[in-house]
Amino acid sequence: MVGIMNPVSREKLASLSNSVKFATDLGPKLELCRQLKRDLLEEDAAALSEFLSHIFDLYSDPSGPVRKLATEIIGEIGVKHLEFVPEIAPFLITVLEDATPAVARQSISCSIDLFRHTLEKTAIQGLHSSELDSDLESSWSWMLKLKEKIYSIAFQPGSGGVKLVALKFVEAVILLYTPNPNGSSEPPPNEGTPIEFNISWLHGRHPFLNVGDLSIEASQRLVLLLDQLRFPTVKSLTTSVIVVLINSLSAIAKKRPAYYGRILPVLLSLDPPSFVIKEVHVYGANNALKNALLSCLQCSHPSAAPWRDRLLGALKDMEAGGLAEVALNQVHKVNGSVEDEKDHSSVIKEEKPMTKACDAAGSNVGRKRSGTEDSSGLAETGDVSGKRVRSTPSVSEESTKELNRNTSMSQGDISSAQSTTRKVDVDTGPVQQLVAMFGALVAQGEKAVGSLGILISSISADLLAEVVMANMRNLPPTHSHTDADDELLEDMCIVGSNTQAKYPPSFLVDVVSLSSTFPPIAALLNSQQSVPNEIVKTEVGEEVDVMAGPNSTVAYAGMAHEAENALLPGMEKIDVPTPSDIQDVGNLESGIPGLDSSFHYDGLSDAQAASSLVSTDLEDTSQEQGTSFGGKSPLHVLPSISIERSEELSPKAAVNDSSGVVSSTATSVVSSHPFVLPKMSAPVVNLSDDQKDDVQKLAYIRIIEAYKQIAVAGGSQVRSSLLAYLGVELPSELDLHKLLRDHILSDYINHEGHELTLRVLYRLFGEAEEESDFFSCTTAASAYETFLLAVAETLRDTFPPSDKSLSKLLGEAPCLPKSVLNLLECLCSPGISEKAEESQSGDRVTQGLSTVWSLILLRPPIRDVCLKIALQSAVHHLEEVRMKAIRLVANKLYPLPSISQQIEDFAREMLLSAVNIDAAEITDAEGLIIESHKQDSELEKPSHEHQSVSSTGKDISAIFHQSETSQSGSSPSVPEAQRCMSLYFALCTKKHSLFGQIFIVYSSASKAVKQAIHRHIPILVRTMGLSSDLLEIISDPPTGSENLLMQVLQTLTEGTVPSAELIFTIKKLFDSKLKDVEILVPVLPFLPGDEVLLLFPYLVNLPLDKFQAALTRLLQGSSQSGPVLSPAEVLIAIHGIDPERDGIPLKKVTDACNACFEQRHIFTQQILAKVLNQLVEQIPLPLLFMRTVLQAIGAFPGLVGFIMEILSRLVSKQIWKYPKLWVGFLKCAFLTKPQSFSVLLQLPPPQLENALNRTAALKAPLVAHASQENIRTSLPRSVLAVLGLSPESQPSSQVQTSQAHTGDTNNSEKDAVAEISKESSGAS
Amino acid sequence: MKFRYAMVCSSNQNRSMEAHCLLKKQGFDVSSYGTGTHVKLPGPSLREPNVYEFGTPYKHMFDDLRRKDPELYKRNGILPMLKRNLSVKLAPQRWQDNAADGYFDIVFTFEEKVFDMVLEDLHNRDQVLLKSVLVINLEVKDNHEEAAVGARLALDLCEQIEAVESWEDSVDDILICFENKHRRKLLYSISFY
């Protein structure tokens, strides 16, 4: 197969490459390229050599991705077939110049692969033979050219993205050119073995690859890299370049520790804030630097060791102290410089959390402390800690010793190193010469920096290291020592503490970790060794003080650990000791933590006394103790620390109650117990998780029990914080929460339940809010919710409604989750949940509402939600609930400007819903439209989040509606309408302009809604009184609202005198818009009489009942001014109406008359007489005059005499000329016979005749009457003739004319008679 | 889409999946990972988290938790989250074990710790390809709400990055622009495959 190209594949490849060339779309083109690549890589060298040019052609493609892919293909071919390098390398060099950065980067990316393989091949071939084939040699020389080209890119300024990769290339070459200390220094026995290439294989026996030269080149390149990071070059770099440089250099330092000493100074002197111009990304570079330094710190190579301290210092400055400590521990572990390494490593797993705890405490303190910088600021927690510190001058001395011992350990390393260098410099003169040369250069100062750099870069790293080591000897011993000390002191002090002692963090970490591991020892030791331990207190004291000092809760952290640590073994041994048991246990007793002791000796003496006691002891023994500890491993010292901590803390646990006795007993114990420390074996008992849980739980129960008893002692603030902390902090917290809750709720008031609850809540809340991982966040949040809800429910269920605890709790809790709000909602709107809580009294509602009110005032963020709850309650179906809520909303909440709009909107929406539901249900009985409508109206709500509150309410109301409507047809019931509208009405009383909406709604409202409105109006209007807003509404009522307007006016005028404005407004309205006189009725009594008279026709035109009402008002008048019109005036006014002129049906007028006559107590005989007297004088006579006369007779028969007078006056007024009245006259005469006979006889003969003709029934009695002698004589002859009492007959012509005269009116007269008779029958 | 994206948080559940889901919807070539040793989900208490191995299907977790306490896990949002996740991919993946997934151009982390772990892991790999990778840390608090916010921010940033020819040349500008726009601090580093 070799050398012979398979024709098929060749054809295929050719067509493929052609189709690539001619493909136009990028997608398919790339796909073809990939296929080509796959195919090509399967081909052998010969085939490829033919084909290579085709692929080079591909590179001429205009699109970047294709060129990139072509480059990639070529690169891979090169790696596979190194013999093509002489062709490929020039190609890659051209590609480096490509305009598209991605292509250029691809070229570099290919180059490094190619370079590595070529180097490897060259090297290995050189190992096996002294002659290399020329192909390889030329490949290598091409690769060198390529490398130089990339170097130039890497080190030329600018050129962005390509530069990043080029720098990386430099790093890769440096790594290739330098020996890997961890790699194998011998080449693999057979070539095929996949093993990482190591330049040290060469051993100087290669024809042209010289290890030394390569190393020098690597050095030079490294210098160039380093120079980039030096000032001022670094200023011109972009952050990304800096990041890459830092990463690369740290990688080199890590992989080639020989360069450690050259790279680190540069990294350490980097100060990102000073060189990054675009400030925003300082921390980007900073972070890279931090990570770089951390990774350097982890390097275990000996040449890295001297840098550790400086690294630590730098990291501390960068606030990565915690990580550094961890890293350092790992280093210690690796180096084995700590004696107790075995123990140490066994606990190393536990160490991390502990360190974290310390860090947390430390940082916490740091934060809290900023306010109270000096020790006097600690006074808050009592003078205890401050005093102790001040009264122990020996502390610093002691600590220095400790420190010395510690530093001597690390110096061990150095001294051993020194011994080796000493050996070296005996052998090597050049090193000493170099030292001298360096010395001379350094002495020249600044100007020699350049030459110094050259010198450094030109010697090999190992040599340089030797120089440095040799120079160590020249350093003044004291200086180096103190220098180191200073550094330690400065760098390793955990917090700026009050004591002068400062400790290497590692030491502290050890201390903490060990004390946590050996609580049993601690427990046992305590009784025998407490005084010597006081020494150590100063060490831990620093930590404990700091923790306990500014922030008492931090102290509890220690406390918590302590309790945990010390309780475990104790409890294990003696089942579950109750406080009384402890006394019997003897020695172990003091092993049970300070808490117990303080509990027992509670309140016996004061803490200051205790501490002074202790400190005296301390002074006495410290000196001796210090020396005795000097040579021992930390292990011996450590166990005591935990005890110390417990003792330290015990007085703090009850700040005011002291444990003076504890310490004094402790001292006395010491005197009787000699040291038995070295013989102690640690009874470590491994507990299962369940056992631990049990123990912790039992411990907690005891603590809670204890709290119940010491409640009287005071100091509750601190103690409840502690209890809350314990409850939350200890694991398996669900149960503890419950215990704590039970404790709180068992006696909420006496156990300061509120304060304790709040503390627990705040702690849980803090945990939930803390920037921690997902699951602890969520867990804490859910624990918080459960806790708060449980307490709130209990408060609700157990306390009387008048109690304010619930309100207070909800007001002060850090946040209110939804479930709690639901609880509140149920409280405010009973029956909203499925649970039947009908037993709930109205007081509960009041409680809920007042809570809501206070929440609205106190917690702006949840104001909306709370408001929803209140509003929901304000449209509750139970009137009692509703009225309470409305009172709250209208009186308390509505005046708040921030929420008034929202309240208004809601009320309006409800108002409209009452009307619209109605409308909707008429069209759609299913009520589907309601829903959609509601959703529309929902939009105006500001937040959808809390929609649930209102929407639940709506659903309920919708359901309510439907059930209502199913009973009562298509409109909501009156109560339902009231439910929806009450709130709005209540708001109207606060803001009168809202009232207008009711007028608008009114016209389209259903009967039930109208009814509901009418029911409300009197109260509403009376409350509102007359305001300008109301006047405005009245002045322009929407059409359809007349009835409402009437009611409003009636209410307004009821019992009071309406203001002139109101009267004016109404009159204006009547004149302009509303012609209905009805609206004037309410104010009639207050109008002047003449105006009323003008209006009278309109009044008469009203329906009868309304007229009667108006009449009553008129006659009654107002209390001040008396009647507007007298009854007589009224009757006269009625008679003054002309049906034709005024356009009022006669019927209305007669009705009006009848109405008057009905009120006989007002329209009395006298009044009628007066009226008739006046009417009869009118010209022309009123139309209804005779009718009224007739009615008057009917009503008051006693008036007959008076009527006769009237009739005779009518005769004199020639009544017969009024045909209508004439009929009435006759009728009257007929009715009043026989009294009327005399009047009839006064008629002129023709009229008499006419009368008798019309009323035949009159004739006979009249003739009889006239026949009487005395009368007959007085009658003229003509009359007698008419009566037929005289023989003379009348000339017929005259009769004829008179006949004719009356004849034309005959018909109408008949009508009138008929009419009148009809009327009178109706009236009587 | 020019670049391949990876979203990384600690458990490959909340923040990275939120972003994964969002970017996937927008058509990005995106994967997601966690850097933790296990997948930890909240349990009934802090002490009793639900711990799964990476590679355990989301569906499995979903069923498991639903069986254990549907009420609790629904309330704290775990079940809905898992449901979302199982619609995105099969199972949580671990960043440190993703060598087979090829190289990414952009890696998003949502926590500095994770950022450091990703970088450390990248540094520990054999960097032979010289293929640059941009690692960006966007600090996002680990709860549902913040995760949603973070995902939107990540999407925004991805769109910015996608818009340029090569991020290597303009990463600083893009990030500064982003920081000014959203007032969020970013941390980034460049590593190589």
Number of strands of chain B: 7
What would you report as the Rg of chain B, rounded to the nearest angstrom? Answer: 17 Å
- Which percent range fits the helix content of chain B? 40-55%
Biggest interface, chains and residues, is: A-B, 51 and 54 residues
Uncertain runs of chain A: 1-5, 331-428, 479-676, 834-838, 920-970, 1289-1324
Strand order of the largest sheet of chain B: 2-1-5-6-7
- The structure class of chain B reads alpha/beta
Q: How would a textbook summarize the main sheet of chain B?
A: 5 strands, mixed
Q: What is the number of helical segments of chain A per DSSP (H or I, 4+ residues)?
A: 66
Report the mean per-residue pLDDT of chain B as an integer: 89
- In whole angstroms, the N-to-C terminal distance of chain B is 20 Å
The SSE order of chain B reads EHEEEHHHEHEHHE
Shape of chain B: globular
CA-atom Rg of chain A in angstroms: 57 Å
Can you give a write-up of this model?
Chain A has about 1300 residues and is an all-alpha fold. Chain A is about 75% helix and about 0% strand. The longest helix of chain A is centred in the N-terminal third of the chain and has 34 residues. Chain A is elongated and about 190 Å long. The N terminus and C terminus of chain A are likely disordered. In chain B, the strands form two sheets. A five-stranded mixed β-sheet of chain B has the order 2-1-5-6-7, sandwiched between helices. Chain B contains seven helices and seven strands, in the order E-H-E-E-E-H-H-H-E-H-E-H-H-E. The two termini of chain B are about 20 Å apart. At the A-B interface, helix 6, helix 8, helix 10, helix 13 and helix 36 of A face helix 5, helix 7 and strand 7 of B.
